[in-house]
Design brief:
single chain; alpha+beta; four-stranded antiparallel beta sheet; 8 strands
């Protein structure tokens, strides 16, 4: 079913041969979806079913864009800052300990890191993201974290 609401923002993973080899087939995999119900964070293509998670608007305090410095070019991420009582989300970082999270991204709160996805093999349109959040959850802010030099 195609959503006809023009306010919905959806970004999909680029299709690669790895997607076929991982068993995901050649179907469209949603990396991020923002709609009237909440935010869907897609899992990595190789673990898509196990890592994809949905958070309803009532659980979300803010959407956060952040950067992780690495030995290479670094990685942009999108994450959700949620209410403390919200249930845990599945995801690639779900088994990460607070200690390892602090070593990887010391400028990001542990719970935010758990509820984040790398922006890899898909493109984020910040303007469309902001428009969708404003349309569906005007009380939820979109934040950009800048990493400071240490």
């Amino acid at each position: 079913m195609v959503d006809s609401d023009p306010r919905v923002y959806e970004a999909t993973f680029l299709r690669t041969p790895f997607q076929l080899l991982s068993g995901a087939g050649w179907k469209k995999l949603v990396a991020l979806r923002v709609d009237s119900e909440g935010v869907l964070l897609g899992g990595a293509p190789a673990q898509y079913g196990k890592q994809t998670a949905f958070a309803p608007w009532k659980d979300i305090r803010s959407v956060v864009l952040w950067y992780q410095r690495t030995a290479g070019r670094g990685i942009n991420h999108i994450g959700l800052r949620r209410h403390p009582e919200a249930p845990r989300l599945a995801g690639p970082n779900s088994k990460m300990t607070p200690q390892s999270a602090a070593m990887i991204a010391p400028h990001v709160e542990y719970d935010l890191l758990l509820d984040s996805r790398p922006i890899n093999f898909w493109r984020l349109d910040p303007e469309k993201l902001q428009a969708a959040v404003d349309a569906f959850a005007p009380s939820v802010s979109v934040l950009v974290y800048r990493q400071t030099e240490q």
